[in-house]
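step 3/5: co-fold with magnesium ion
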Amino acid sequence: AIFKSGKLDEDSIEELEDALLEADIGVSIVDDLIEKLKDEFANRKKDKNLSPAEILKSHLITILNNRHHTGTESCQVLTPNTTRFSHKPWVILLVGVNGSGKTTTAGKLAYYYGLQGKKSVIAACDTFRAAAVEQIEVWAQRGGARLVKQKSGADPASVAYDAYKSTQARSEDLLIVDTAGRLQSKRNLMEELGKVARVLRKHDPTAPHEVLLVIDATTGQNGLSQARGFTSVAGGTGLIITKLDGTARGGVVVPIQSELGLPVEFIGLGEGVDDLHPFDAKVFVNAIFE
Amino acid sequence: QLTDRFEKFVRNLRGQGKLTEKNVQDTVRQVRRIMLEADVSLPAAKAFVKTIQEKSLGQDVLKSITPGQQMVKIIHDELAAFLGGQAEPIRFGKSPSTILMVGLNGAGKTTTCAKLALHLKRSGRQPLLVAADTKRPAAIEQLVLLGKQLDIPVFTSDDKNPVRIAKDARKHAQKESLDCIIIDSAGRMHVDGELMDELKRLQSIANPPETLLVVDGMTGQDAVRSAKAFSERIDITGLILTKLDGDARGGAALSIRWITDKPIKFVGVGEKPADLDAFHPDRMAGRILG
Ligand SMILES: Nc1nc2c(ncn2[C@@H]2O[C@H](COP(=O)(O)OP(=O)(O)OP(=O)(O)O)[C@@H](O)[C@H]2O)c(=O)[nH]1
Ligand SMILES: Nc1nc2c(ncn2[C@@H]2O[C@H](COP(=O)(O)OP(=O)(O)OP(=O)(O)O)[C@@H](O)[C@H]2O)c(=O)[nH]1
Ligand SMILES: [Mg+2]
Ligand SMILES: [Mg+2]
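step 4/5: write tokens
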């Protein structure tokens, strides 16, 4: 209710600031937002009835909806001119730290695009973690996708290579490449990931068409370090925030988009195969001020 | 470095006899900023800063070090104290004694169960791992494989009810003369009423002297919310912080310790079974302060 208030005094500023900070937006961005808010509020037209919360929301939505930012050299965001599935197979590479929700999301993506009539293939490129292949076998089945796998310990790049070749040969629409979780500070693991991306590029210079960093909504500012690290080895086109069905707000996507221009493409709202939804900036921002 | 940052803020303290309210003010604002950048939850950061303020006021500026250095020492020592004393050992009751592992999805519970089992085996115990996650695809296979690698027995059952599994596992441990039971539970959201009820039933039947909340080391603001919810619903006796082999600052350590007042017993520092360290509050303090 405080957020409906039209005034901007020291108490309400602190309340708004706290909401932004507790959403994991990060001190620097929050400082900028509050400064902008104070300016804008002081200079607002008398007829404009926008509350301070509404002003903040509109600034956040502007940042989050910015798809024209071409990011950095390593981040090529899907612009309105690039249509998904303009290449066959359309290749999505899922990357991210341990436990963020990549494998689950691979199944969800296959299901999501399956509803749009797309034939999906999942490449089981986590050849390292215990029972990773057994886990993704279930998710491929749930998502209605064909699974390409090799035995545990195989080279992930070789699985990606096989998957691409067979998907292309069978003229299937979508190849989703699931990779092992890894911390961005581990150089050898990051190089392994770079190799997977390169192998896909060998087949099709435009592939992978999407490189989606899967981030747990509970992640703090380390999410920014993750985004920098992963995009520098594998490139980056967007984010998927998972576990938004909890109490975490996933605000770290704001500094990520602000610095790297990576937009959120999807959100995960549960453990079911249909718990994947296209990103809606308005809904996301409203939740911050709930 | 931290000292340089504080030197900037406390330069005006030189030549002054005491740390006064006014000159501590700016410094503690900077402390709060550092805490937030390190992903300490806002309420925990506020509480900590208040303590620093009280501790700093009226202290004589020592002749031998600069006021900035002195502030850093107060902050570091206070943070280490907040994080708790040296790591407390695992609590055991009469044999077979149970340890219940709980936490959010993907925090690292299953991997940590294996690590803990290895740690206990090396200290002369006979652990039994219990695969009580009947929900996640291949969760049972994951624990079975880890147990096989370590030559540690794993109890599995076709039963879908984790409470019954815990009952049967206890009988099995008694029959096999195993002296401790480590129960791997399914990841769950603290806002999922049904799953939290299930956990409450599981704890009441398993009656563990030790219930460990496993928390991802890169958790941001949500750390206080989720730890609070778990500790209000069930009886948490200790905490484990995982994935600290990455570059996350780990402010969640302060958040979860502050809100639960329970000891952090171990930290996860890698994906292998041997990657479990005792918690060192002093080291954690240095890491959080950056
Ligand atoms: N509640 C909830 N749980 C999720 C969501 N996405 C994934 N999970 C759960 O998070 C846990 C980890 O998911 P995984 O798919 O294994 O994560 P991962 O990134 O593949 O993990 P690694 O391969 O080990 O790095 C599982 O318990 C999933 O069910 C989500 O949107 N909501
Ligand atoms: N680098 C690193 N990875 C870890 C650590 N602990 C666990 N992991 C990894 O984190 C991911 C998730 O671990 P799990 O043990 O499956 O997590 P969980 O809590 O059992 O997940 P759910 O059962 O789905 O809730 C896996 O990829 C693990 O290898 C750690 O200390 N460091
Ligand atoms: Mg996975
Ligand atoms: Mg598990």
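step 5/5: annotate
Chain B has a mean pLDDT of 92.
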